[in-house]
Design brief:
4-stranded mixed beta sheet, alpha/beta, 47% helix
């Protein structure tokens, strides 16, 4: 879980970070989360409730950042693919008068940067500097770091501008300056955070109940009218935003009911772009107009034909590779359309046909593999599935699959056992705390969820009664009253 710091060789990083970076001690994952709290306070989607587009961008970037930080902590990692992120950053009092940053009329600015760091500490400093946030708290927490200011760092403005207090009174959001003061005084613990934020969450939840009922009604009505399998959302939009999306789909159904019935039996997902996903879900881009949605529903029969061809390709690849199952795991793979995924499978299948590498029939039956285009060598995931690059060396692939097959079976067995344990703990936690809903962020693994639930069950937490609780990577009260807590929450005295 710990990464030893290496000298920073990138020219841009040398400009941004002083020479003491390579001399600092190892930085843990928990320290990274604590150090990034000021960053979370200025980019958290909960503060962009009135700006759905910016909220969505920040949600997407936070998920990518979480994966990047998690990969940095994996033992034996060599290097990570550069990850480009975009965040909308709210104004704080940390911006200098000579700043060249451009703020919108709504009080936030867009920040773009690319992560290509090699350890947690340099990553944290790079993020804070990119967003023009102070790094003094990072220096003070890392005892081996020489207390040298970073005023010379790349574009570190410090403009002393604050939002008017009426904004927080009107929106119900908590003044982030108050939160930052709390963070600077002591590490947040679960009980102290719930004591401070429980009433606010209850009030927001109560205010959202009428809209939640309306959302359930609209979802049930549309699912029945269009005979859909399910309606889902890819992003954590607020209840009001989700209702608006369903109402928009409902109006389209009134105008083109027969066309929309082409989606009978499908799952509809509101997401970034319109199309059909790799697993056959109908994706409705939230920024698209009704005309685009109508065209998509009209073309669904042709998509179903392509899906049948895709399934045939998967079967053929499985046959050529000893019966291993080709799967697409939404939580672990990039969002691909049906056409993109078919193209990926087709390239790999044609390469297999030409090489004709020998596999004993059904020798890999019961195992799973996912195809990807951004890796250079096959690997075995902790969850038991193989990550196979489309253009990998097929002779090496044969050797890798055969030698790792037993380990893959063991990993899959542990995954299945872990899933059962996780499900039982979620049910037990829901029952003990009388939670209305208990769920986790996609970035939280089953191992982390089990650890979180196990410790939750040992605590008396009356604030959770009747609440919607999400296990994530940081504390937050969402705009509709959902409580977000980090999976590695602490209780009692803070530990360093």
């Amino acid at each position: 879980m710990f990464c030893h710091l290496r000298p920073v060789r990138s020219l841009c990083l040398e400009k941004a970070f002083p020479h003491w970076l390579s001399c600092s001690r190892a930085f843990s994952g928990a320290e990274a989360v604590n150090a990034l709290r000021p960053f979370y306070f200025v980019v958290h989607p909960d503060f962009f409730g009135q700006h759905p587009r910016e909220r969505e961008v920040n949600e997407n970037s936070l998920q990518k950042l979480s994966v990047y930080l998690e990969n940095l902590q994996k033992p034996g990692f060599k290097s990570l693919k550069p990850t480009q992120l975009t965040f909308y950053v709210r104004e704080t009092d940390q911006h200098s008068p000579d700043s060249q940053a451009t703020f919108s009329t709504f009080g936030f600015r867009a920040v773009k940067f690319t992560l290509h760091t090699r350890d947690l500490l340099s990553t944290v400093l790079y993020i804070l500097n990119s967003c023009s946030l102070s790094v003094e708290h990072v220096q003070s927490s890392n005892s081996s770091v020489h207390p040298q200011p970073l005023k010379e760092a790349r574009g570190v403005p410090d403009r002393p501008i604050k939002w008017d207090k009426s904004y927080y009174s009107f929106t119900g959001f908590k003044d982030p300056d108050e939160d930052l003061e709390q963070v600077s005084r002591a590490e947040t613990t679960l009980t102290s955070w719930l004591d401070s934020n429980g009433k606010r969450a209850v009030k927001r939840l109560e205010n959202s109940l009428p809209l939640r009922k309306e959302l359930d009604r609209l979802k049930e009505e549309l699912s029945r009218q269009l005979q859909l399998s399910d309606i889902r959302w890819q992003r954590s939009w607020g209840v009001a935003h989700r209702c608006s999306q369903l109402q928009s789909l409902g109006r389209l159904a009134q105008q083109n009911l027969e066309t929309l019935k082409n989606a009978k039996g499908c799952t509809v997902i509101f997401t970034d772009r319109s199309g059909v996903s790799a697993v056959g879900h109908v994706m409705l881009g939230t920024m698209d107009v009704h005309h685009h949605w109508t065209k998509l529903f009209e073309r669904l029969p042709s998509y179903f034909d392509l899906q049948r061809k895709l399934m045939f390709l998967e079967d053929q690849i499985s046959y050529l590779l000893g019966g291993i199952q080709v799967v697409y795991i939404e939580e672990l793979q990039p969002v691909l359309t049906l056409e993109e995924y078919y193209s990926l499978l087709d390239v790999f299948y044609n390469r297999l046909l030409k090489s004709r590498i020998p596999f004993h029939p059904r020798s890999l039956r019961g195992l799973q593999m996912i195809l990807n285009s951004d890796r250079y060598a096959p690997s075995l995931h902790d969850l038991g599935h193989f990550n196979i690059p489309t253009l990998c060396d097929l002779v090496y692939l044969q050797w890798f699959l055969l030698t790792k097959a037993q380990q893959a079976r063991e990993n899959m067995k542990r995954k299945n056992e872990l899933k059962v344990t996780e499900s039982e703990l979620i049910q037990a936690s829901t029952k003990k705390f009388s939670l209305e809903r208990f769920y986790k962020d996609p970035s939280v693994s089953s191992v982390q969820m089990v650890d979180c639930c196990t410790r939750l069950l040992d605590r008396p937490l009356p604030w959770l009664h009747g609440m919607h609780l999400c296990v994530s990577n940081f504390y937050s009260v969402m705009q509709d009253g959902d409580l977000c807590i980090p999976w590695n929450w602490k209780n009692g005295r803070a530990t360093k």
